[in-house]
Write a structure and sequence with these properties.
The chain is mainly α. The chain has seven helices and no strands. Helix 1 packs across helix 6 and helix 2 packs across helix 4.
Length: about 110
């Protein structure tokens, strides 16, 4: 049973990496950045138009949850989805929809607000 859970977890992680890779490529960023710790957060922040220093907020417990939700909302809007689509991103299924679906990157959503 433990081996099955490990196998399913590994398959999910590999699939999420592939989805992030495709999202990064759609946004004009290098796909390999999805597999580099910390750098992938920097690239994700660049994609959504948030400042790079937010990576520090992503490392602070409890604050990182709020920042992750804000980044998810911005990511959804950057791909032309509604803010409520961020719920799908929070539950991981949204990354598959953005990466493997027909969603097109429309520019950094947070930068448009500023």
């Amino acid at each position: 049973m433990d081996n099955l859970i490990t196998l399913i977890s590994f398959a999910l992680v590999v699939a999420l990496i592939a989805a992030f890779w495709k999202i990064f490529v759609k946004a004009g960023q290098p796909g390999w950045a999805a597999i580099v710790p910390i750098y992938n957060i920097i690239i994700l922040l660049k994609i959504v138009g948030r400042p790079t220093w937010w990576v520090v907020l992503m490392l602070v417990p409890f604050v990182n949850f709020v920042v992750s939700v804000l980044v998810a909302i911005d990511l959804a809007k950057s791909f032309g989805k509604s803010g409520t689509f961020a719920l799908a991103l929070i539950f991981a299924v949204g990354y598959f929809i953005l990466g493997f679906g027909d969603a097109q990157y429309q520019g950094p959503a947070a930068a448009a607000k500023a």
